UniProtKB/TrEMBL annotation:
Gene3D superfamilies: Histidine kinase-like ATPase, C-terminal domain (3.30.565.10), PAS domain (3.30.450.20), Tetratricopeptide repeat domain (1.25.40.10). The keyword Chaperone does not apply. Residues 356-429 form the Signal transduction histidine kinase subgroup 2 dimerisation and phosphoacceptor domain. The keyword 4Fe-4S does not apply. The chain crosses the membrane at residues 303-323. This is histidine kinase. InterPro entries: HATPase_C_sf (IPR036890), Sig_transdc_His_kin_sub2_dim/P (IPR011495), TPR-like_helical_dom_sf (IPR011990), TPR_rpt (IPR019734). It holds the Pfam family HisKA_2.
Amino acid sequence: MKKDLEQKIIHCNFKEALDIINANGDMYQGSAKVELDIMKMKILTELGLYDESFKLSQNLVSNSQTTPEQQHKIHVERALVFEINDDYSSCIEELKKAEQLISKYPHLKSKNYTNFLIRKSSYYRVTGSSKIAYNLALQAEKYAKTVNDTINMPVVHLIIALGNRRMNSEKELQHYKRALCLYKRQHHYEAVISMYTNLSYYYFDKKEYQPATIYIDSALAIVSKSNVLSYTADVYKTKSMILEKVNKPDSALYYFKKASEYYKKFYSEQRDLKIKELETQYNFEKEKTEKQSLKKNIKNSRVFNATLIISILVLALFIRQLMKNKRKIEKQRKRIYENNLALKTSLEEKQFLVQELNHRVKNNLAVILSLIDFQKEQEKNENYKYRFDDLYQRIKTIMIAHELYTYSVNYNDNALVETQNYLEKIFETHQNSSLRTFTYINDAEKILFNVDKILSLGLLLNELVTNSIKHANPVGELILNLELKKTDENQIIVHYFDNGTVFNFDNNNDSLGLIIIEGMVKQLKGNYTRENAHYKIVFPND
């Protein structure tokens, strides 16, 4: 079964492999069970179920029955989970532990060192140490050739190609093609599709749309063989991007919709797998608890019977009362256990649903932003393009608030968001997206507001910044200033101004910005005054 599972993992049949492990896991014990759990951890990571993968790895790390090779695999896989979740300090710690095991047990090196070097190179690449990452990739290539590691060789060429990005375009292309050739030899359709997509994007980035189209069409020709919906979605998305650049908006929109459908199916599949995994874990814990309870009851019964035989003649009345009390206690214990189990299950389900809702809200806002950006690119009227930009910034302001605020089953209306960080991100968003350069001074105190108040304050600042970028006419560089502080009377005072010499907000035919400013001040239960481009807003800190 192990070899069958390894082949399914290599060819990305992750769902089928997961079903086999869940169905047969109870049949194995000891080291064999650990090996299955390591495979399951890798599958969960590939399916994007990082929380479940990490939870399983925690059990494996504390398992005393793991062999040194299994420990090495666990640490390398945990490093990948930490890297994906941007926990780079934990990632390098896991890699150090894996490297120590190879040093202590040299016989592990031949089977595992190439993959270890790949993971280590990836860590240094994502943390910005591109030169170290590239040298590690070259070491991986050299070692893979030494031990004839054909499984990992395509990945080695892929990371070498990534190491040559923006340094040596010809070498980057050469290694991409080499990786593609090796994946074709392995009949690894998912990897072939992914490499076609990478090559297409390589030419797309160079604005060479004809070869980009050839490669993405090659991916489309075999995409039906893929078992990974996200790979399929990436193919259609890339095709849409190319068609948009060659002025075929109708076809681009068609492929964009296809990509969206596959992304939707992918997220739905992730949700179903997550629920199924929670159910499997619940059943496992329930069975484990029942076995422990049975063993405990058997042990208690033996002690009780021995005591009964010895004491039955002299302690009959006492034992009778003891039995009554025992039955009462067992019933209470059972009720408490059942209630706790039901509460735990309910809490996990609610926590999942709340987190899924928050995830969907942020995803939907991101989709809305993408649609606005897409529509803006198709719009020829420059005036309407500016309106799309304004709408984009307003929705982006709302999205930032959702990113900083975490919903949970313990949610209440007094949950707080830190002001300075939120306002800083609004300034940064404008600075990154605006064609007009400016600097800003964010002199806001670190005050905590509830999510409703922070959102109103964020939309207010967004309109003020937008207004300054559009209308301020300074001598020299545009400078935006924000001051926010709390007074002894428990009021919040906000001063906002720029260094413009002319203020013509009232002459703007589109007064929506002013309406939003007044509406947000009213939402904050405050008032404001304005002298030219200097706003003073006062509202209670309730």
